[in-house]
Amino acid sequence: MALKVSKVTLDYGGKPVVEEIDFHVEKGDMVTIIGANGSGKSTILKALCRNLIPQNGIVYLDGKSIHKTDTRELAKKLAVLPQSPRVPDDFTVRDLISYGRFPHLGWTGRLQKNDFAVVDWAIEVTKMGALQHRVVSTLSGGERQRAWIAMALAQQPEFLLLDEPTTFLDICYQFEVLELIKKLNMELNLTIVMVLHDLNQAARYSNHLIALKDGKVYRKGTPREVITKTVLEDVFHIKVKIFNDHEHHCPYFIPVSSSLADKFEATENVGREHCV
Amino acid sequence: MMFHMADKKNDDTVMEAQKTIYDRMLYRIMVMAALLVLCVAGFLVSVRVGSLKISIGEVISAIFIENEGVNHQIIWNVRLPRTIVAALVGMCLALSGAILQGIMRNPLADPSIIGVSSGAGVAAITIMIVLSDLYYLITPFAFLGALAATVLIYFLAWKDGIKPMRMILAGVAVSSFLGAWISTLMIFYPEKVQGVIGFMVGGLIARTWKHVDILWPYAVVGFILVNLFAKRLNILMLGDEIAVSLGLRVERTRMIFIAISSLLAASAVSVAGLLGFVGLIVPHITRMLIGSDYRYLFPASALMGAALLMICDIIARMLMDPVEIPVGIIMAMLGAPFFLYLLRGGLQHGVKSQ
Lengths: 276, 354
Fold this sequence. Notes:
Chain A is α/β, with parallel strands linked by helices. Chain A has 10 helices and 13 strands. Chain A is globular and about 60 Å long. Chain B is mostly helical.
């Protein structure tokens, strides 16, 4: 039971963004893909969500190519939360969450008793009970993200893919959402694959990290193996001080300077704007 | 004690919640009922009004009881079919516009604006002028024309939803191309221009049971299909990525809707000509009344479209009595300012991204 990416090459507008990439995600794992802008992290996630078809290579879910599996069957196993999903102005939270049942419904699309029970369960897990009759567009960013996660949960998936779920949120909501995702991983054994921008959050909440550089896997491993001085310098061009978070048993770092700065000084500050 | 209080609070929320659901349902039922009343009123007035004054009571008796007499003749053979054509055309165009606004994720989509009607119109006019023996094939050919135009615009302007500007430009390009075709036909067949002009403005003058027969099968099939697939269109409104994640076959669903929308627009055009703006105005006003959930928006738009066109047709007949203005002109007088209003500021309504 796993998600396996095998020799996948992805083009975006004719030029290869990801080349012959290989990795796999075990069931129950919580994996975060990190990398600089343009490293291909969102692109690879799009292939996992079957929004991009690989030019080469195959994405397997439980041994079957996801691009050849019936999309409705796949939707019962794999849920996706894109970066900025849209919603009509007047859909309520409960309306939205109930759409998560769509892959399980018959041709007529009517919800049965069991479907209502699952929707109630998803609302309870994400603590959306008090908000379920509110209109989605009136919610705060964090509440809205919880509503979308609840919709994904209503699919009763085994895998949940999230593309930068915290990017547009205030910092307190960022942690709220990450805590919720971690809880789903621990308590429901939901396998999580996500892309995060904040590396300290990635190290704090993930079991494994995959660091991409120029469309290739640069390093894969536990946060302790990936969040190191050399990896961060090579992948993100930053010099850091690394500390240990004894309470959460994970590393964290403070950026000290851009490692490109030395080069800039050597060339008399030409092009400093690149690191801003 | 603590638990008890928690339970009570929970009960309150549940009751509150049920009240909210109940209120929303009640509101929707009331809107539907109001639209239905509007339809019935429009129908009765439309059948009653004309150069011969007939009271509502006489109208009802002429439809349901009498079998002969002047009243019966006028109502049964002239006003009744015309009113039914108006209602069906309004319904078809409104549903077609509601679909296009959904699949193109664009509030300005309307069969007449983006060239779908022109596609149907070109096919219909070609048959009317060049192949007039094949009159019975007008609707199927109009359907093919509308389908071709929609697919063309879709591919010209689509990139994760259709941006208003790109869609209007694509529509202008397609419409002028098709307009050139129509002009060419009119120059080569000057003796048939008279009939074509009425068709291009869009009107309901002298529509009879023959036209009702052309129209109703398409209208009924279209109405049933859109209501069957309404939930899928709701999911499509959540964006392609979410729709794919939920297991919806996005491209196939969109193509099905394009086909239904073309069918509806084509059947309306082949009976009433190039009647504009119904598909723009009606879904908008209805959305403001009942919300953007297509399970309610479709039936409500159908009622609103039927009512609007019947009422506008009454105005068209009454305004300069005894001369009749084509209803297409009334629609354009209402529609063009509405279009500008949407272009200026009304765009905030509709789908928002987070």
